[in-house]
Amino acid sequence: MRATIPILAFAAVCSVPLFATSYYLYLTELAMINIIIAAGLNLLSGNCGLISLCNASFMAAGAYGTVLLVNQGGISWFAAMPAAAFLTFLLGAVVGFPARRLSGLYLALVTLGFLELVQIAIEESPDFTGGIRGLKVARPELFGIPFHSETALYLLVVALAAVAVFAAWNIQNSRFGRAFDAVRQSPFAAQAVGIPVARVKLLAFAINAAFAGCAGGIFAIVAGFIDPTEFGVLESLKHITFIVVGGLGSVVGSIIGAVLLTALPEALRGTQEYSELIYGLILLGSLMFMPRGLVGLLNKLPAWKLSERTRKEPAHGAP
Amino acid sequence: MILPLPPPWKDLKRVELSRSGLSCRNRLGRYPASSRHCGKIPDKRRLVFRDDNGSAQTPPAVAKMSWQVASQLALSGLSIGSIYALVGLALVLPYKASGVVNFAQGEIVTLGAYAGLILANFGLPYLALVPITLLLAAAAGALIERVVIRRMMGGPEFTLVIGTFAIGIVIKALIRLHWQDNTFTLDAPFIGAPFRLGPLRLNPAYLVFVASMAVIAGALSAFFFYTKFGKAMRATALDAVAARLMGIETGSVFASAWALAAMLGALVGLLLAPVIGINPDMGQLILKGLVAAVIGGFSSLGGAVAGGILLGLLETYAGAFWGATFKNLVPFAVLILILMARPEGLAGTSSARRV
Amino acid sequence: MALLETKHLSVNFGGIAAVADVALAVAAGEIHGVIGPNGAGKTTLINAITGVVAAQSGRISFDGADISGLAPDVIAAHGVGRTFQHCELFGDCTVIENVLTGFYCRQPYGAAAAALGIGKARRVEKEARQEAHQMLAGFGLADFAGVRAQDLPFDLQKRIDMARSLASNPRLLLLDEPVSGMSEAEANDAVATIRQIARDRGLTVLIVEHNMRVLMSLATRVTVLNQGRVLATGSPDEVRSNHAVIEAYLGEDA
Fold first, then answer.
1. Do A284 and B354 touch (CB under 8 A)?
2. Does residue A4 form part of some domain?
């Protein structure tokens, strides 16, 4: 029974190219990319409770990594994307290493420092990354089928998002998801049942980075152009907004948050300044008045609450 | 950042520094000293000096890092470090008092500068608008604490860290909505030509920065150690619950700490505005302030001051030796190194480490 | 040979000796009680054994292996489980998830397998869930499987803590004040439960308690601590009639 909703949603999303214009297709692709990001960040910050301000850097690593592997390494796109995602996974482990022993504030600072370092690295290597000017990205070909076709690219993005959500859901309901939650709530008790807290935090960072790296890779193709201004602190905060608004710790929440916050600024169609103001206000408002996110609000409705108690295999809800 | 640095010193073959000091030349042509051609050639051969007529000169006395250059750099480093120290102070204060780091502090600096701009547009001279801006800033700081921070204080650390970022986003967006990305100027009495003091060239703005930092550091020390309210703040920082039990109104303490930090931020904005201009990106300064605070361990005000000065000096010397790229890297490299090796800073106690 | 043994164990906190030169020996299958007035160093002892605090000197060995200085999660993986005086549950998680978390070490699948949801991971998960449900049923928590742990009353939380500690299938279970905060009836229930679990699973149990009556009825051997030092060791009767113990608990006139 519970599988029908996701299947219906997936079918609905797949059918969008039938009636949408090119612009809305692009918008939906962005929403799918944001879903990938949010799903990964949710595991790190929602489940494991770790603050990361460098998520945009992982996305940048995936984006620039994919492009560089293709341009300089001569690999095909469809090997480059997973390869870049894997490299980003390793990068996440590198960042997660100091994270093991650091508490919230200091962790935020380390990730902030890392983000700035990556920014500088991108800007100061114009031979590789195009520097401040950015990099143009060509549309890839798969076995000779050019992805100039909008629909083909769109379906690829949707497929990736579906895989990401599937993976995030599985991880969350596995021993790793439980370990993340345990480490967040009581590291002492987690250790007492044999959970290696430091390694789990490292894994959380690495997995999150892999998701963001994937998203970055496909973003480079979809957007056709990447530059360092898209991977700064503000972007990281936008990613955090997805999961705060949706509901920390909830996969469904990350989907809702990502979709809503991709659609909203576009719907209001203001200038960039308005868009940032809105993000800021939404983030602030959620933190102040809706700390459990939209999923948390929905859980307060009687019907939802009832189903939560009678479920035999309760899925992980919002914290 | 805002201070003109001397050209990078390197022993180079084929790259020449002319007497006018602001360009270098290799066989491909002449380049400004800030270009990467002057900074990136790693060879360690002899420096060739040519004057503007093209005839070779013996290297002037400043070919190596002489005391004069070193002290000039030290002065630059000290003065920019004073700014960093002030920002660091403004970060450590509310953290010590209420356990919250205000990641919007950079935007408070910006806000102070723009507030000064508004008052200047009303015709107020600099010396008059400074105290008014400081008062307004204090009110703003207390307001933010009461309305926003107080609400989020019981919750998880995540909420507080991200929350202050969100405040910053909102402030910066509002500023950009009204003033766009234009840069404005502000007149101040300490803007003037550099004057000579012995072998050193002193920019009066530098002196004001250093003097402000010294005065404020002194005033804060006196406040915390000799006044009753200052002692109350220290007590609250150590143990808020115990402080409340002793009859200290922790609410006022929190609000005052934030008001004080906002004043410091606005002061920094007003000091910087005449020197670098007013634009919405001034808030980037917070990163330097964070590094300063971390060097000091985020637990001591003296540490933040020392950290800021140290950072200013490190940056300035790194820029002189290795060029602009390294100068930009220094703060973040230092930040990460300290957080990884010794998160309690160079002075603090090890409460930063957890399980 | 003792399953758990400490020799000359000393733990200092800033100059104060919380545990001083403690020698403890727990034989396999035994229910060993550690008793002492408040501040005697009982919880510190458990924390030292489980690796949460570092001992300044002495050795701790478990099943012949030296576990001094090992990380808490490594010690737990060796087969040492514990409960907490204040439960330390994962409050946001449901009861079943709390217990399932305890299965971490017994589920040998990797993150990639988990993410893809393929065969081995799914099978292991399913088995774990079945076993977890059975454990909940054994503790009378079956109706609360889907309830958030922090929403439940304290006595149920204690049971969850116990179930979770058993989920990792330990050979030695350390119970930290298992009946604190309980009424007499609840305490009696807890005693019966502990006795039954120890018997059914062949567990060795080390109980730290300051409730004399409960401890004496449950333990087969008792160690008395006072101010970090061992006062006496022996069977409950021997200890009960030991002069030094009586002095420490009741004062010198008793």
1. no
2. no
Q: What is the CA radius of gyration of chain A?
A: 19
Q: Which residues, 6 or more positions from A202, have their beta carbon under 8 angstroms from its beta carbon?
A: A93, A96, A97, A99, A100
Q: Show which subunits contact B, needing at least 3 CB pairs below 8 angstroms.
A: A
Is the CB of A173 inside 8 Å of chain C's CB atoms? Answer: yes
A201 Cα to chain B: minimum distance (Å) = 11
What length does chain C have? Answer: 254
Residue A30: partners with Cβ closer than 8 Å, 6 or more residues away: A222, A262
d(CA C174, CA C209): 11
| Token output for A8 | 């219906």
Residue-wise pLDDT for C63-101, tens only, equals: 888 888 899 999 999 999 999 988 899 988 999 999 999
Taking CA atoms, B256 is separated from A191, B112, B145, B269, B300, in Å, by 41, 18, 9, 20, 18
ipTM above 0.95, yes or no: no
**Cβ–Cβ < 8 Å for C71, A197:** no
Q: Which residues 166-205 of C are in CB contact (within 8 Å) with A? A: 167-168
The Cα–Cα gap between A312 and A315 comes to 9
Phi first, then psi: what are they for C20, rounded to 5°? -130, 115
**B162 chain-A contacts, CB cut-off 8 A:** 51, 237, 240, 244, 283, 287
In a domain, A277, yes or no: no
Per-residue model confidence as pLDDT tens digits over C145-182 = 888 998 999 889 999 999 999 999 999 999 999 888 88
Query: What pTM was estimated for this model as a whole?
Result: 0.85
Counting the structural domains of chain A, the total is: 1
Q: What is the DSSP string of C160-210?
A: HHHHHHHHT--SEEEEESTTTT--HHHHHHHHHHHHHHHHHHT-EEEEEES
CA dihedral sign of residues B58, B61, B62, B63: positive
What domain range is A145 assigned to? Answer: 13-232
In a domain, A159, yes or no: yes
Q: Is residue A66 part of a domain?
A: yes
Distance from CA of B353 to the nearest CA of A (A): 6
